[in-house]
């Protein structure tokens, strides 16, 4: 069994305090980093939707242009055919040309009828794109501000984290290297909680009830005692007599 002193235990408890703060701040910084990614996602989704609206607008613009060009072309064709009609010699020729005029006119009328609809769609798409672009500008601004605020929230903690990391290292220097290594291993394996108090005979790491003999050894503080269940370093602290309970 590894021998330790009361002093070692005190150092371990100090080390754990710095470790707990380090882990807490690291987890907080990770959380706010995810928050930043989360708000960025909102922007990406909005941009994707805007791109779809822009595609729809571009399609309706093309359709509008093509329909207009076709209407104009059919109109010119009708005019030309009408001119030719005046010059035809045979009845057969006349009928054929007349049919062509009728067909072109019908097609033109039909296109003119649908053109209003096409134009309305195009204008509606233009309005949507303009509106969404304005919204995107606002959203981008809001998200940049949100992210800056999130960054600011983390600023103090990043500085504090550095402090605790240094503190942890300094405290560690006072420990026997093998004990320090052991602390680090247990901490890595136990979510940053390597040293726990035994209070009312319970391990405060896993809440297992500590066997009587082991409890006495923890109180004696002569050797390194690990919790049989969670494998954390156990220590005993005298109940503070002067503690005044609230209420
Ligand atoms: Zn335990």
UniProtKB/TrEMBL annotation:
Taxonomic superkingdom: Bacteria
Organism phylogeny: Bacteria, Pseudomonadati, Thermodesulfobacteriota, Desulfobacteria, Desulfobacterales
CT398-like coiled coil hairpin domain location: 39-189
Organism whose genome encodes this protein: Desulforapulum autotrophicum (strain ATCC 43914 / DSM 3382 / VKM B-1955 / HRM2) (Desulfobacterium autotrophicum)
InterPro entries xref list: CT398_CC_hairpin, Oxidative_Scav/Glycosyltrans, Zf-RING_7
Protein name, as recorded: Nucleic acid-binding Zn-ribbon protein
Pfam families: CT398_CC (PF24481), Zn_ribbon_9 (PF02591)
Assigned keywords, A-Z: Coiled coil
Coiled-coil portions: 15-70, 94-156
Ranges of residues in domain C4-type zinc ribbon: 203-234
């Amino acid at each position: 069994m590894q021998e330790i002193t009361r002093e070692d235990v005190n150092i371990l408890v100090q080390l754990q305090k710095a470790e707990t703060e380090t882990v807490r701040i690291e987890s907080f910084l990770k959380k706010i980093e995810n928050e930043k990614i989360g708000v960025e996602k909102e922007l990406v989704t909005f941009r994707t939707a805007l791109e779809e609206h822009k595609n729809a607008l571009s399609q309706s613009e093309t359709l509008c242009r093509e329909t207009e060009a076709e209407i104009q072309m059919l109109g010119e064709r009708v005019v030309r055919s009408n001119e030719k009609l005046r010059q035809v010699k045979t009845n057969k020729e006349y009928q054929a040309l007349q049919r062509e005029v009728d067909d072109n006119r019908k097609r033109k009328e039909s296109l003119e009828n649908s053109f209003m609809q096409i134009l309305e769609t195009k204008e509606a798409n233009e309005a949507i794109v303009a509106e969404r672009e304005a919204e995107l500008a606002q959203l981008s601004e809001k998200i940049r501000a949100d992210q800056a605020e999130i960054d600011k929230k983390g600023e103090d903690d990043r500085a504090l984290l550095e402090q605790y990391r240094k503190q942890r290292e300094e405290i560690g220097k006072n420990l026997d290297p093998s004990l320090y290594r052991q602390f680090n291993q247990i901490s890595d394996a136990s979510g940053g909680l390597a040293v726990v108090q035994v209070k009312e005979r319970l391990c405060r790491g896993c809440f297992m009830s500590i066997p009587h003999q082991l409890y006495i050894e923890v109180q004696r503080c002569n050797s390194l005692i690990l919790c049989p269940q969670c494998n954390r370093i156990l220590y005993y602290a005298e109940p503070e007599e002067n503690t005044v309970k609230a209420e």
